[in-house]
Amino acid sequence: MIKIAIVENSPEDANELNKNLEKYSQEYGVKFECSSFVNGIIFLKDYKPEYDIVFMDIDMPHMDGLEAASKLREIDEKVVLIFITNLAQYAIKGYSVNAFDFVAKPVSYYHFSTMLKRAIIKCNYEKKTEITINTPRKIVKIDLLGIIYIEVSNHRLSYFTDSGEYECWGSLKNVENDFLSNGFGRANSSCLVNLRRVQELHGGEVKLDNGKTIYLSRGQKKDFCQQFAQFTFGENN
């Protein structure tokens, strides 16, 4: 179930979005739970980070979509944000609030469905998933989103997380399939990186949000960059 918020002051445009979502649901079997709001003020009042995707009109009275999106990001950094607009010249400003994409009015179903497919891939990466690590002293459950990177040395796996480092016996080969399908990329023969935690990707260097720099091997560089592009944009570049 994908939870969607539509923030749109035009009933006709909101209805058109709902029709496109219904068509997509019928074609691909994806279930949506949609809530509609007529402006950003109502949407943000008592907001809780429970949505997967937010469609936000830019041209709204009282509070425009860019201002509403800026306030949204103060309380929800992860929701996939998509602007709806007939003001394409303002869409570029969406990057300042980490907008995923924008939909131009009038909405074309072909372009809408292509973008929505990418958005669903993106929001699925953000689902909370717990993993269990059997350390020598205790069994620990960790939110996968809180793992920054995983490194192996001498048959010992080290999980570097927001709550500290955890070690256990193992190999990357035995665990990598689960992580690669959940938003991680292989940087080199001894390291898996959480793509959510990549702050900067430049040449063969990956800078993580904890200040750590991981170096890409020559053999993994192309695949890692493709994995990062798919995670970030929902498609291979």
Query: What is the beta-strand fraction?
Result: 25-35%
Helical run tally: 6
Structural class: alpha/beta
Q: What is the residue-mean pLDDT, rounded to a whole number?
A: 89
Helix content: 25-40%
Question: What is the CA-CA span between the terminal residues?
Answer: 28 Å
Largest sheet: 5 strands, parallel
Enumerate the strands of the largest sheet in spatial order, edge to edge or round the barrel: 2-1-3-4-5
Q: What sort of overall outline do the alpha carbons produce when their principal axes are compared?
A: elongated
Unreliable spans: none
Radius of gyration: 20 Å
Tell me the series of helices and strands, N- to C-terminal: EHEHEHEEHEEEEEHEEEEEH
How would you portray this structure in words?
The protein has a 5-stranded parallel beta sheet, with helices on both faces. Strands 10-9-8-12-11 form a 5-stranded antiparallel beta sheet. The chain has a 3-stranded antiparallel beta sheet with strand order 13-14-15, with no helix packed on it. The two termini are 28 Å apart. It has helices at 11-28, 40-44, 65-75, 109-125, 172-180, 221-233, and strands spanning 2-7, 32-37, 53-57, 80-85, 101-104, 130-134, 139-143, 147-153, 156-161, 164-169, 184-188, 191-194, 198-202, 205-208, 213-215. By secondary structure, it is α/β, with parallel strands linked by helices. Strand 8 (147-153) and strand 9 (156-161) form a beta hairpin. It is built from 6 helices and 15 strands. Helix 4 (109-125) crosses helix 6. It is elongated and about 60 Å long.
